[in-house]
Amino acid sequence: MVRKKLDERIRTLFQHTLRTNQRALLLLVGDHGKDQVPNLYQILDRTAAQSNSDGKITQRHSNSVLWCYKKELGFSTHRKKRMEKLKRDKKRGLAKQQLSGNNGGAGSAALEQMDNFELFLTNTDITWCYYKDSHRVLGTTHSILVLQDFEALTPNIMARTIETVQGGGLVIFLLRTVKSLRQLYAMTMDVHSRYRTESSGDVVPRFNERFILSLGGCSNCLVCDDELNILPLSKKTLSRLTKMGLKGSMTTLEEEEDDGDGSKKKKKRDVITYKTDDDVQLEQLKETLRDTPHVGKLVELTKTLDQARAVLTFLEACADRNQKQKKSVSPLASAMSGSKSTTVSLTAPRGRGKSAALGLCLAGAISFGFNSIVVTAPEPENLVAVFQFLVEGLKALKYQEHYDYTLGYNYGLDSGDGGGGGGVAGRDNTKCIISVSIHGGKGDNGGQQPQRIQTVRYVRPRDVEKLVGAELVAIDEAAAIPLPVVRKLMQLNPNHGGGSKGKSSGGAATTAAGEERRLTFLSSTINGYEGTGRALSLKLIKELRDSNNTKGGSGARSSILDAAREASDAIVGASTKKGEAKVHEKRWAAEAAAAKAIGDPNSASSSGSGPSLKELDLSHPIRYALGDPVEAWLNNLLCLDCDSFDYNNTLGKNNIKGGATSSPSPSAMELKGGAPAPAECELYHVNRDALFSYHRLSESFLQKLWGLYTSAHYKNTPNDLQMLSDAPAHNVFVLLGPTAEESEGGGGDDDDALPDILAIIQISLEGKISRKTIQAQLARGHRSAGDLIPWTMSQQFGDGNFAQLSGARVVRVAVHPGVQGMGYGSRAMELLFRYYNGEMVSLSGGGDEEESSDDDDDETPSESEESDEEPTSNALLHKEALKPRKKLPPLLLPLSALPTPRLDWLGTSFGLTPSLHNFWHRKVGMTMLYLRQTSNELTGEHSAIMIRALPRRSGWDDAWLPAFGVDAQRRIGKLLGGPFRGMEVSLAVNLLGDVVGGFHSWMKNAARNEKKEEDGDENGTKQQKMDKTALQEVKKRSGTQSTKLTAAELHYHLTPHDLQRLELYSRNLCDHHLISDLIPSLAQLYFTSRMGSDFRLSSVQSALLCGIGLQHKSVDDLTSELSLPINQVLAMFNKGVKKMSLTFHNLLVEEESKGLLGGDAMKKAETKVHRIRDVVGQTLEEDAAEGATVAMKALTQSGGGGGGQQQQAEVLNSGVTGTRMAPELNDPEIMKYALKGTDEEWANALKDKASVGDDGGTIQIKSTKKVKKRKAGDGDDVMESVLKNEKTMSSKKKSKKKDKKKSRKTM
Fold first, then answer.
1. 1010 pLDDT exceeds 90?
2. DSSP label at 5?
């Protein structure tokens, strides 16, 4: 076998990393790169052994290997299976045949290589890990990390695994064979499948290009092929390693030549000890505290000076419990004795040992006698290191497992026991400790107290109520928890202990007011793979610091006054010449100096007053040396260190050198150009090809951009950076001041200056899905990746047409922390809406989205030129030196220079909070269309979707928006008593206020326009017709919910007895409990706009009606939530119910009045009678006269014969002149209605009337009736006729009653 000489620069790199306790990075390009891993392991092991024998390095902690891969290794990791396979192959002759081949030398080399690899697998401690299980390696330490299957790597996995490598270790990337490293630019990653949508374009892997180019900036990085030939990626690094190798060999010769000189030996020993000042101070501190109880054993476990100081500060805070009865001896303990709560904040970058320090502190708290300790973090897996060092601390304090304490894990327990979520530990749920119960009775009094149980348990962040009774609350990874949740976790309940005043249940010290004190420890990673932000340090800690310096509570004010009074009393004035002595001026100066000394947080006297805040920071890494180049490279690649980036130093010249991190100075976060007026700022589009080109200015701008993300959001992961760079549907816009173009075009030293970023908007284009895809996915109940809003709306409303619309979803909006709340976010969203709505004139000459593809082609001309030259051999791989592209498109472009895509809506999805809902609804003008019923496990927030239509660019009508809005809010109102019962009542009222306020006026106008059109008014505009269409859609989805309540529907909701009870309560004649069952119906009627367009309740009345009626909260709960006295709450509630009761009464009165003929109804009836008056040709009088004439003629003709003259005489004797009636009709009752006079007399009377010319008045004729005197016998005939008439009338009434009875029976 021919052995190949190893390049000395590789061994030089290993020697350098071992001596400086730094890490090395190696990129192996080739399909056989994994075969070189055993060789690299042996070289590194031999170099370490040689350096250790020479005394040039300290002892290494671990020699294990972590091998991470996607799914398949290509070989078996099981030793027995490998041996059995070799035996089977030897028996069959396959092994010899495969290894011998045609060339004996090659076969022996392959056999030796296989034996070398087998020995490596057999004799090396290797941890095999899938990429999807990379969270299992948290807290572990390894000497070599192998990352296989580069296409499956993500930034999160990269940051998570590289952090486990110790100083002097090696990180190896395995890549497939390529002819040129530029081919890696276009490598398709597995994560790209999630970025592709139906309407998006091709994925451009910009992150890979930036990854390869960034390797040249790492001083401890080498790129080799699968034969360990070094590729010239960075000539600067190679020349540096060459010089280091020559210098190391010369130094070795000098040391060997001068080996006999004693002075040289002493000098040599000084060099090889390699102990820094921090290491010496740490050893001295450990020696000093070795015999200190509770402290010495725990400090012995610390690794760095920063960690030891943090543990001492934590333990000092815990020690105040025992020092309460004594005189305070420490500033921190003195501060705690005068306040209700104390907060100790510990912030550090990844790998500084903060979780270990927190675990050792909890062990110390147990030894100091704390009974109830609660630890919280986003996930139980985040506390693996905390509980691990808690157990190590207990062991160092002589606690024994199972005898003194027991451990609880996150499986086999109920979710309420340990608070850890229960379930069974598996691949997705790592087995970890979530509780420690100490029952040995080892307290701070040496066993004098009775035996008690001390607990350390994990509680999820959203379960704030489970923190009741906790004496110590430790919040780990606080930056990954939303700021409102952290505030709730830090709130103090004065009666949480349940004990009497002056003494708590666990014997903890209490304040002078009798309130129990709680310690709060905040531990946070300000940058890392978990996804963190700067909201904790920029907002919460700043609030605590300001409160500590200025407000300080009542205790701080009293202490300041006392100190000022004492300082004033100490100055005694002279008995004579007081004016010359200036006693008053001296007293005023002494009072001011004393007050300033108390208010100064850095002074010793100030620590005894006010809410105490102690800030700690860890900067020294645990596993590797400070200034590790691999850490600096990783932080720069993934923008993990952008929090310490100097905003005013755009080139990063004063940035952290060598990977060390520190908090940014206050001036670093200030804006160079100040805070311009929002109306003068403009929105610019960021070209991502230029942003991720690894150019100097582009990197500076990227760091500033990502720094705003981490400062404005609580959760930022490295994967978000890859999504921003590679996702084809994503775009970035920045809001810049009016001097942005001037700063870009400056000359001289200002060429490199970049404008201040005031706000950032990241959007994702969604929708435009084909109908076939929609039907296929909805039929199976599935949804494709991406297109969050279209798929959600289609599923929720059952409308597949919405997914065919195209829109833009706002992924993030970040505003600079120095100008938040000044209107810059609203200004940016306003400009973005105007851009997508087509209100900005495009200077590019086109307005369609088809032209955007041309811009993509023109953005990377250099890349296309370079890719045309296809290499023919591997010679280019060993000669090429990669550099950033020179021809770059403009980084920033105004919106007027971009073509406007045709979109239908602009939406967003976020975790619902009152402030965010106020921003998106009131300032941006979006409508709530969806609210997820299940809340987020970490934040407790419900995911919401809000949308605003783009009417000018849309080819569809906007009828879907109000229809979906009314339907969504109707659903939310019905769910307020269930999944949304814990929502704040003010937020619930705002969600339902869109129906009462926003949509109601629109619906009223639409209904008025519809009525005008029905009346014949055809002059309606296009907008009125669209409103009519939208109103029809609203009625179709909400039914009668869009119309005013009627009396019939009111009786469906409330009975007359219920209305009577409401009236009694409105008159203060009964208690509110009497109408408690009616409040849900009242709330439903009000919040669905059934009370009319003019009916309104005040904000407090609406909140009470919503809280009691829809959320089913008690009056006491609403009293505390609204911060109002109980009598005011009940008074406002009574007024609201009274107003609704009067509205119901008026509605019933109006309905009842419609059945009575009065007023307008009477006038309408008279008008109707007047119209039907002239239906026939003659009146009733004329018709009666005509009938009488005909009847008399008939009677006259039938009156012939012998008795005719006698009958005529009888008729004439009757006294009726001119009539011809039968004698049987001569009845007095009938004849009194007969007309007197003959036809001639009436004709003459009418003729005389006409001659006079008078149309009105009466007509008279002379009566010819003879008055006949009544005789005595005539009265009997009258009485008989009267009785006869009464009988006939009674018979008629009886017949009518019989007819009614028959009709009832038939019915």
1. no
2. P
Residue 220, pLDDT > 80, answer yes
pTM: 0.74
d(CA 324, CA 508): 9
The pLDDT assigned to 970 comes to 86
CA dihedral 1071, 1077, 1081, 1086 (to 10 degrees): 30
Residue 1152 has pLDDT above 90, yes or no: no
pLDDT at 61 (0 to 100): 54
Mean pLDDT of the region 810-826: 90
Q: Which two tokens stand for residue 453?
A: 């149980």
Cβ within 8 Å of residue 468, ≥6 positions away = 493, 496
> Which residue stretches of 274-408 are H helix?
277-288, 296-299, 305-323, 331-337, 354-367, 384-396
Longest dimension (CA), the chain: 190
SS3 (DSSP) at 1217: coil
Q: What percent of the chain has pLDDT over 90?
A: 21
C-alpha 948/C-alpha 730 separation (Å) is: 19
Pick from 715, 688, 27: which is nearest to 378 by CA? Answer: 715
Sheet holding 892-894, edge to edge: 892-894, 682-686, 730-736, 757-767, 806-815, 905-911, 943-949, 927-931
Name beta bridge partners: 205: none
pLDDT mean across residues, the chain: 74
pLDDT tens-digit series, residues 957-970: 567 888 888 888 88
Q: What gap in Å lies between CA 65 and CA 122, rounded to an integer?
A: 12
- Cα 443 to Cα 45, 319, 457, distances in angstroms: 47, 13, 19
Q: Would you give the distance in Å from CA 150 to the centre of its chain?
A: 33
pLDDT tens digit string along 426-482? 555 667 888 999 986 555 544 445 567 889 999 988 888 888 888 889 988 887 777
Please tell me the distance from the alpha carbon of residue 1274 to that of residue 1270, in angstroms, as a whole number: 7
Cα 1050 to Cα 688: distance, rounded to the nearest angstrom: 60
pLDDT at 60 > cutoff 60? no
Express each pLDDT in 388-401 by its tens digit.
899 999 999 999 88
Choose among 798, 871, 627, 828: nearest CA to 712: 828
> Is the Cα torsion angle 768, 771, 774, 776 positive or negative in sign?
negative
Burial class (CB in 10 A: 0-12, 13-18, 19+), 706: buried
Across the range 815-820, mean pLDDT stands at 86
Strands laid side by side in the 165-175 sheet: 126-130, 65-69, 142-147, 165-175, 24-29, 221-225, 230-231
Give the integer Cα–Cα distance in Å for 1057 and 58. 90
Q: Which residue, among 918, 1092, 935, has the nearest Cα to 1004 in the 3D structure?
A: 1092
Map residue 731 onto helix, strand or coil: strand
Q: Is the distance from CB of 303 to CB of 353 less than 8 angstroms? A: yes
- Gap between the Cα atoms of 949 and 925, Å rounded: 10
CA 297 to chain centre: 44
Distances (CA, A) of 465 to 391, 469, 489, 492, 515: 27, 10, 9, 11, 18
Residue 850 has pLDDT above 50, yes or no: no
Taken as a whole, the chain contains a residue count of: 1307
How far from 903 is each of 22, 58, 895, 950, 1149, CA to CA, in Å? 52, 64, 16, 7, 51
Q: Phi and psi dihedrals of 655, rounded to 5?
A: -70, 175
Mean pLDDT is lowest, of 56-70, 392-406, 1223-1237, for 1223-1237
Per the listing, tokens 């019915």 go with 1307
What CA dihedral angle connects 1247, 1252, 1256 and 1257, to 10 degrees?
-80
Angle 895-899-903 from CA coordinates, rounded to 5° = 100
How sure is the predictor about 19, in pLDDT bands with cuts at 50, 70 and 90? confident
- Which residue type does 307 have? Q
